[in-house]
Design goal:
The protein is mainly α and 214 residues long. It has two domains: 14-52, no CATH class; 53-199, no CATH class. The chain has helices spanning 3-29, 43-52, 56-62, 65-76, 78-99, 122-152, 177-187, 192-198, 204-208; strands spanning 32-35, 38-41. It has a two-stranded antiparallel sheet. A hairpin with a 2-residue loop joins strand 1 (32-35) and strand 2 (38-41). Helix 5 packs parallel to helix 6. The relative contact order is 0.08. The model is unreliable at 206-214 (pLDDT under 50).
């Protein structure tokens, strides 16, 4: 991996850290706190949110006629999304251990927390839950596909892509035959960054225990 690519990856990590910092500021701004991967609002904020929730009747009455007519078509897509979810999960369960690829953690991509928002009525929560699930599954499957592509064919495209999955930056250059033959085995197993991210931190006593011996 070139020094320039390493520098770019470091900048990406720095931007991700800045993003997390900004998200923390939003927690304070809107009076909620994330604990155990759940958002918790104060009682006063929940009460205020409930005042802003639309009744079901009003929500349907104010909805566009075309939105109501196309709703069944949107929900029809749920069937292939569920099938894709199940198929991708089964695939990585059986194949990733064989390839030596770390499994994708679904909880990192399928996040469903909008039901905690009291200013949403039941129908809005249902719609939001569908969007969370569908988009989360697509992101989850894209990561599975990206890790699979890194193992089987880690070559960049000649034509620039509008979007790239998380593993693309580690792929080999298009048309560089020597690089491909020399580094293919190294690149297809280069998942150390994922393993570092997912490994739990050592207990505090293990980190500092050796400092107390005299």
């Amino acid at each position: 991996m070139t020094d320039k690519l390493n520098s770019l990856l470091e900048k990406i990590q720095q931007l991700e850290h800045e993003l997390l910092t900004e998200i923390k500021k939003k927690e304070s701004q809107f009076s909620y706190e994330v604990r155990d991967k759940k958002a918790h609002f104060t009682a006063a904020v929940i009460a205020q949110h409930r005042k802003l929730a639309k009744t079901m009747t009003r929500y349907v009455r104010e909805s566009s006629l075309f939105n109501l007519l196309t709703a069944p078509v949107i929900w029809l897509v749920l069937l292939p999304v569920v099938l894709l979810h199940v198929t991708a999960s089964v695939f990585q369960f059986f194949c990733f251990p064989v390839y030596g690829i770390p499994k994708v953690r679904r909880r990192d991509y399928v996040v469903m927390d909008r039901r905690m928002l009291s200013y949403l009525n039941p129908l809005e929560r249902l719609n939001c839950g569908y969007c969370e699930y569908a988009n989360g599954v697509l992101a989850y499957v894209q990561e599975i596909a990206g890790r699979t592509e890194q193992y089987w064919c880690p070559i960049k495209h000649a034509i620039g892509l509008k979007t790239r999955h998380s593993r693309y930056s580690r792929f080999l250059d298009f048309g560089d035959a020597e690089q491909y033959r020399q580094q293919i085995e190294q690149v297809r197993r280069a998942f150390e960054d994922i393993q570092r991210e997912e490994s739990p931190p050592p207990p505090a006593n293990e980190v500092s225990g050796s400092q107390h011996f005299e």
